[in-house]
Amino acid sequence: MLNSGHNLNNSSIRSQLISLIDIMSEPMQVKLLKFLEKKIKRLRAGTKKLERRGDLRRQCLVPVDYLVQGQIFNSYILDISAYGVFIETDEKFASGLDIRMTFSLPEQEEPFNFSGQIVWSGAQGFGVKFNYISKQQMAIVKTFAEQAQRIYEIIS
Questions:
Q1: pLDDT tens, position by position, 112-156
Q2: Are 5 and 12 in contact (CB under 8 A)?
Q3: Are 31 and 88 in contact (CB under 8 A)?
Q4: Nearest CA-CA partner of 143 in 88, 105, 101, 114
Q5: CA angle, residues 122, 131, 67, in degrees to nearest 5
Q6: Taking the model in full, what pTM does it have?
């Protein structure tokens, strides 16, 4: 798993990124490239959005393992709030399906294990509303969603 501590130096970050990219399939690398190109444009315009529903959503790239209808998948959470996540995938799921997710946020030792419900699905992925989230978990996720994102400069 990615070392997300504050004391990473540029060469450590670069080598971890290259290692992760090297094990990705070519289609996943293309998706990552497109995602990062869009993300850089958004970062210049501002990183946080206040949605109609009133919660702050943070764009991110967090690996997630999830279970839907007895089948295990892994992908990435592309945005998160204290109430749910958007998971990027080519898989098609119907709204209303139950989901179990496991993911880790940077600087958190213990992974989160959340259950939720798929509330909408589109061509690039689906949105999940958490079924239950403790006050402590909500505080952690909300703090993460409200934090300014750290941008690492990659020096080649």
A1: 999 999 999 988 899 999 998 889 988 888 888 777 555 444 554
A2: no
A3: yes
A4: 105
A5: 60
A6: 0.62
Residue 55, φ and ψ in degrees, nearest 5: -105, 145
Residues 6+ apart with CB under 8 A from 151: 43
Instruction: For residue 7, count CB atoms less than 10 angstroms from its CB and return exposed for 0-12, middle for 13-18, buried for 19 or more.
Output: exposed
Q: What domains does the chain contain, in order, with CATH numbers?
A: 7-46 (no CATH), 50-146 (2.40.10.220)
Give me 140's structure tokens.
Answer: 């952690």
